[in-house]
Amino acid sequence: MFLGEYQHTLDAKGRLSLPAKFRNQMSGSYVVVKGLEKCLYVFSPDEFEAFLGQLMERGDFGKEFRQVRRFFTAGAKEDELDSAGRISVPANLRDYARLERDVTVIGNGDRIEIWDAAAWAAYNGETEGRIEEVTSELAELGIL
Questions:
Q1: Where are the beta strands (DSSP E) in 1-144?
Q2: In the chain, what are the domain boundaries?
Q3: Is residue 89 predicted with pLDDT exceeding 90?
Q4: Which CATH superfamily is domain 5-116 in?
């Protein structure tokens, strides 16, 4: 399980050193894809397969399902951690998430998320201001 928040930097080649705790859970391989809210998701191959399996269960007959599946699979990259424990973030994904140098790496249960540091600070501040309202709404729906 991936937990925590870490400040890191991308190097000039788009490589990012993952926190040691996260590297140990990746088994050397990873899949990086576009995420929601302009961040990137990083999965172990097994977790990405499970995530993709949920999307594929719906088939290709609904336009929305096709759009969501394409969003997460087009531009995805499967690769190996390098000898220094870094992942390589391709230019198309760096552009999508507006990653330049300073990034925040967070653990979100079954995946890692990579955010532009300023975007994460803004998002996190907004979320903290609304968390009681959001949890109350989810509780009313019987989700929490």
A1: 5-9, 15-17, 29-34, 40-43, 77-80, 86-88, 102-108, 111-116
A2: 5-116
A3: yes
A4: Transcriptional regulator MraZ domain (3.40.1550.20)
